[in-house]
Amino acid sequence: MRANEAHAKAEALIEALPWLARFHGATVVIKYGGNAMTDEALKEGFAEDVVFLRYAGLRPVVVHGGGPQISEHLDRLGIESTFTAGLRVTTPEAMQVVRMVLVGQVNREVVGLVNRHGPFAVGMSGEDAHLFTAERKHAVLDGVKVDIGQVGEIVKVDPGTIEALLDNGRIPVVSSVARGEDGQIYNVNADTAAAALAVALKAQKLIVLTDVEGLYANWPEDTDVIDKLGSEELRAMLPTLSSGMVPKMEACLTAVDGGVPHAHVLDGRVPHALLLEIFTNQGIGTMVTPS
After folding, report:
1. How many other C-beta atoms can be found within 10 angstroms of the C-beta atom of residue 213?
2. SS3 content of the chain, % helix, strand, coil (to 5)
3. Could you identify which of 58, 101, 128, 267 might form a hypothetical disulfide with 53, taking C-beta atoms 3.0 to 4.6 angstroms apart as the criterion?
4. Contact 109, 170 (CB under 8 A)
5. What's the number of CA atoms in the CB half-sphere (13 Å) around residue 52?
């Protein structure tokens, strides 16, 4: 019995070998969000996976959002959460809460989980060292531009600090807040931020963790997940996708259009989803490649 178990473990390691060789030294940007951020066991598993990637010779970078945590905090303070065209309307009052929750709470928690395994994670926000520069973004409702407050679109990425941390063997953990040339602070979509950073770092992979198994071929009629598709196929599908999937699939498209060879959408509710995707022959979720 023990020999069988040992053989199974050895087989898993041997299966990982070509992938370990292929991705040694590769930069991987991981968008961390959804259920994986709220379930204790999944949070700990995510931190283990990221540290495993680091020990396996990859260069992981984590970009996180914190939508549920922000909504909960705004509710507690009696500040109403309103959404226009799927985007959070961010008043100056709400922006203070967004910044506090993302930078002061969620970022600290992710850094703490990773650092149980060694002195790896360094937390920073998109404001630090001008990592992300953003401009005010407007929502479009029935063809009309609508002001939604301090919500930004990233127009510039300066990845120098991230590269220095990676060269020093650290794991950067980045919250999706950006500065504006106008002196404002902006709330930016974490999927979009992760894609922009992956392009700027010339990453080998962008991995977006979400709350679904991947991109469904024919939702809601069936739940067959598309395991691989080209960027042009995805571009054609975008108008038919559910509102929740659009920013994630747009992020994958931005990444591969910008030179990232692989972008993945994975189910963050699956324990060790990252390792299954990178180091097994089957992989899980949906992979987007340049057409």
Report:
1. 17
2. 45, 25, 30
3. 58
4. no
5. 15
Half-sphere exposure at residue 164, Cβ-oriented, CA atoms within 13 angstroms = 7
Residue 151 one-letter amino acid: V
pLDDT in tens, 105-158: 999 999 999 999 999 999 999 999 999 999 999 988 888 999 999 999 999 999
**How far is 185 from 76, CA to CA, in rounded Å?**
23
Inter-CA distances, 165 with 32, 60, 96, 196, 291, Å: 19, 11, 28, 18, 33
Distance from chain centroid for Cα 35: 13
- Round the average pLDDT of the chain to a whole number and report it: 93
Contact 223, 276 (CB under 8 A): no
**Cβ contacts of residue 85 below 8 Å, gap of 6+?**
139, 140, 141, 146
Residue 53 · residue 114 · CB < 8 Å: no
Cα dist. 46→33, 110, 164, 184, 237 in Å?
11, 9, 24, 33, 30
Question: ∠29-198-167 over CA atoms, to 5°?
Answer: 70
